[in-house]
Amino acid sequence: MAFATIKLKSKNGAIKEAPVGFSWTTFFVSAFVPLFRGDWTWALIMLIASFITFGLAGILFAFIYNRLYIEGLLKQGYAVISYWGDKKEIESNIQLILNNFIDNNELIKFEIDTPNEMEKKYNTSGGHWHHGDMEIDQLLMIRPFYGSAQYETPINGLYICGAGTHPGGGITGINAINASKQLLKK
Questions:
Q1: pLDDT tens-digit profile of 167-177?
Q2: Which residues lie closer than 8 Å to 126 by C-beta, 6 or more apart?
Q3: Given CB 3.0 to 4.6 Å as the disulfide criterion, which of 49, 65, 135, 174 pairs with 57?
Q4: 54 with 122, same domain?
């Protein structure tokens, strides 16, 4: 289920709403979603892919189609005018998951930033989820930057484990494991 919605406006005043995140509708009815949105290119691609893979492509498209749709609207000149989502629901879901692994878990501080908020707050183009591109001067042991690598920062007791640290973004959790190991060495 999409956890948020973005409202976009074209230069001629047309307004479209686009969900963000996994799409159960796309999962079950595949190519009909872009067809109803008037997104003929992706409707055709999804239809052909579903035919070739005997319907299995619908599983993949359920994860990525909403993003592809939003990117397509942005390329057509649409601009984001608002974003809304239930950040409290996301926080409570994360808390429930963490409670399965951590006894007496208590979040001291919790913050979710949307891509628009990240772009404004950190001056990252498009709210880049890697906290910046993976460039040669920010790889391996010097990620995110020289002087703040190996998960430890110059600020005493502050350790970092986000997508900006080695080995980069993704959903592996390796960043947090490595940061925890560094912290346990102290």
A1: 766 656 788 88
A2: 115, 119
A3: 49
A4: no
